[in-house]
Amino acid sequence: MILSDKKILEEIEKGNIVIEPFKRENLGSNSYDVHLGKWLGVYKDDILDAKKHNEIELFEIPDDGFILLPSKLYLGVTEEYTETYNYVPFLEGKSSIGRLGIDIHSTAGKGDVGFCNTWTLEISVKQPVRIYAGMPIGQIIYFKLDGDVEISYDKKLSAKYNKRTEFPVESMMYKNFKKNRE
């Protein structure tokens, strides 16, 4: 089941959902709208290697916007920092974004119970499109859990994306290979 607006507000009051900054006008009937942060990242290398740390170059979106190109993968970040306990957060693109040919994630729409951070966006486009910092980019919906969680994401030693940041975070897949060799 998906939480309603009233239930989201109740869970914010209880501390099970944290959204910073929280603005009431961004609360939908069963979701919360998130916005594009001011930072984008692109990988420094054209060929990426899953076993290596692929570094990104960060840059700030100018006030007059930035044109995304279909040939590139951009890593964006939400303005909003979130924490979610006792629920599973899902980030989906807004329909208006999809109608511009913008995808905000290819595989990473589901968060984990205990995820505490901004959301890194895996942005790709079908045709060139100008974007702006602060524009609505997605919506988080919250699903109820069936059963207790043994170890939440914020407590897992193996968690790779739990360091609080205002910047997009590159893939940490290479850490999986290091663990397998140790």
Walk me through what this model shows.
The chain has 3 helices and 11 strands. It has 182 residues and is mostly beta strands. The strands form 4 sheets. The protein has a 4-stranded antiparallel sheet with strand order 1-6-9-8. A 3-stranded antiparallel sheet has the order 2-11-7. It has a two-stranded antiparallel sheet with strand order 3-4. The protein is globular, with a radius of gyration of 17 Å. The N and C termini lie far apart (40 Å).
Features of the shown structure:
182 residues, mainly beta, four-stranded antiparallel sheet, three-stranded antiparallel sheet, 3 helices, 11 strands, globular
Annotate the secondary structure layout.
Layout: H1 5-14, E1 17-20, E2 32-35, E3 39-43, E4 56-60, E5 66-68, E6 74-84, E7 87-93, H2 95-98, E8 102-103, E9 116-125, E10 129-131, E11 136-144, H3 174-181
Shape: globular
Q: What gyration radius follows from the Cα positions, in whole Å?
A: 17 Å
Low-confidence stretches: none
Strand content: 25-35%
Concise account of the structure shown:
The chain has 182 residues and is mainly beta. The protein has helices at residues 5-14, 95-98, 174-181, and strands at residues 17-20, 32-35, 39-43, 56-60, 66-68, 74-84, 87-93, 102-103, 116-125, 129-131, 136-144.
